[in-house]
Amino acid sequence: MNKHAKLITLLCMVMCAVLVFWGCNKAVGPAETEPGKPTMSDGSSDDSLDLPDKIHLVECQFYGDSMYNLNYKEAWPLALEEKYGISVTMSYPLRDKYMETLYESAVSGELTGIVEIFGGAYLLQWIGNEWIYPLSDYLADNEVWNNMIPQMWKDAYTYNDHVWALASGSDGEATWFARAMRGDWLDTFGLDKPYTIDEFYEASYKFTYNDPDGNDVDDTTGFTSAGIWNLQDIFQSFDARLNHVAEPVPVWNPNENIWEDSMIKPEMNECMTFLKMVYDEKVMDNDIFAATDGAIMRQKVSQGRCGGTFYWDSWVWNFSNMVTYYVGSEAYMVCVGGLSGNIEKKLNHYNVGIGSPKVMMKNTEQPKETINWYVNTFFGDEWGFWTGRFGPVGEERGEAGKSCTIEDKTIIRNTYIDSSGNIRVYPSPGFIGGLPSRALYSVYELKYYAPSNPEWAEKSAQTAYDKYTTRKEWIEEYIANGMAYLLPDKLTQPTSEKYLEIYDEIHSAAMEAITASVTGSAGIEDSLNNYRRLAKVLGVKDILDFENAKLGKATAQEY
Fold first, then answer.
1. Which residue range is the domain that position 309 belongs to?
2. How far apart are the first and last CA of the chain?
3. How far apart are CA 57 and CA 204, in angstroms?
4. Which residues contact 432 (CB under 8 A, 6 or more apart)?
5. What's the number of CA atoms in the CB half-sphere (13 Å) around residue 257?
6. Are residues 346 and 378 in the same domain?
7. pTM of the prediction?
8. Is the peptide bond before 454 cis (omega within 30 degrees of 0)?
9. What's the domain count of the chain?
10. In a shared domain, residues 42 and 60
């Protein structure tokens, strides 16, 4: 297998946030249109292009992982067929083998249709392999595409003046990682929320050794992680940055506007010294390199065994709910969005969640009709958009098997009663992430329909709205104090062919050096020098030179 197929799957960071709103509007049914013709934003139908005979879609974690929600996986394409009068098929390979499966299928020539792939280096690889169509010419006359905002969505996957993929979308809200930290444990010791690495260490040490839960048992640890994935804020505080998905590879420094290799900076030595200290003191969970499963990490935090971790910002809220459930009503989390140390500004990145790229394979039949149908259906047609986001849209509230109903500017999420008598919301396909022109909370309202328990519906909607506003306040604080910065999508990782060629070796060598440094299996200086020697042989400096030349910069780093 080509080694590029082994690029780690952490690039698929799919945000799983339930965005709901409360409110009430007069019930109005969806607009009536000619069968099979997507509805445009002004309510008219698009007659300018023939429909494709068939559509094949490939998606990662469609209605969850491969074996989840099978009934919904089958019903969704049938709903599209009924609505639009064309044949729709879906594929959803296993998450942990997703890109390897796609790669093998692409090599064999079997992969066809519109395919979600993981971003960055994968997209460049597929362009280089000439597996996918450039889309600009096919969409040149598409009204929906030409009027879509924000422009950054259309530019996100543009290389050499060609659009190579479509963004999955989002409502345009900030998405980022932040540290969830036990607020009640801070209260126990009279500590404020930390803003510096020293304050964080003081709190984490007390979380480990001063019995924060008051049970007279030595059973707590300051913080945990899954590998180095959840230590990004610590690396950032030393100005020894990892990339946007916590990989120790060449990275853009926003304070200097230059590409650099953090592994050979003096600051990385300082960072390793700190991490080895907290590892030796067991202030940091010593299982982080052995138990890299995020589920184990989440469980430790949720059950009150660790004082927190660095994860999706929505999980600050989720962890609060979980520790309340497992520990008691007094337990709660605070959001720590950055830790200053060697630097104080532009520490932690955020973006606006454009989503993973959707590409069109070169063996796709009727390519122009296919990509235009996709854009018109999922971004230009209200029924198609909400079906892609929440599941099949029905004509009336509570319609069996229909996930939601459109009532003017309100989306009604339908519910059902499960076998245990609990109220459940229909699962979402996760095919479309959002769209600013249809954003929940700012454009559309959303509420639940639960006729057996309207109080539940009102409370759930209010809770979700509170979650949305709280998360917005978290990011706004760190934007205002200068710790959070917007990471341009084009600067998330190198685009050079050299990077694709040696990515595996760079990543492996850096991880080996970090692991050895922190665990003490080798000295810090020796470990980092071993990396430096290998990086010199591999030609990492060529990557820095290539990327910095595009910025009009020249690196001073030498191997």
1. 175-350+489-495
2. 31
3. 47
4. 168, 169, 378, 379, 385, 388, 389
5. 5
6. no
7. 0.79
8. no
9. 2
10. yes
- For 348-383, the DSSP string reads EEEE-----EEEEBTT-SSHHHHHHHHHIIIII-HH
Domain match, 290 and 325 both: yes
DSSP conformational letter for 76: H
* Domain-terminating residue out of 495, 515, 533: 495
Give me the tens of pLDDT residue by residue for the chain, a chain 559 residues long. 333 333 333 223 222 222 222 222 222 233 333 334 454 444 444 555 689 999 999 999 999 888 889 999 999 999 999 999 999 999 999 987 899 999 999 999 999 999 999 876 788 889 989 999 999 999 999 999 999 877 877 888 888 889 999 999 889 889 899 999 999 999 999 999 999 999 999 999 999 999 999 999 999 999 999 999 999 999 999 999 999 989 999 999 999 999 999 999 999 999 999 999 999 999 999 999 998 888 899 999 999 999 999 999 999 999 999 999 999 999 999 999 999 999 999 999 998 878 889 999 999 999 999 999 999 999 999 999 999 999 999 999 999 889 999 999 999 999 999 999 999 999 999 999 999 999 999 999 999 999 999 999 999 999 989 999 999 999 999 999 999 999 987 898 898 889 988 999 999 999 999 999 999 999 999 999 999 999 999 999 999 999 999 999 999 999 9
Domain-embedded: residue 401:
yes
Structural domain includes residue 91: yes
Residues 143 and 18 grouped into a single domain: yes
Sign of CA dihedral 178, 180, 184, 190: negative
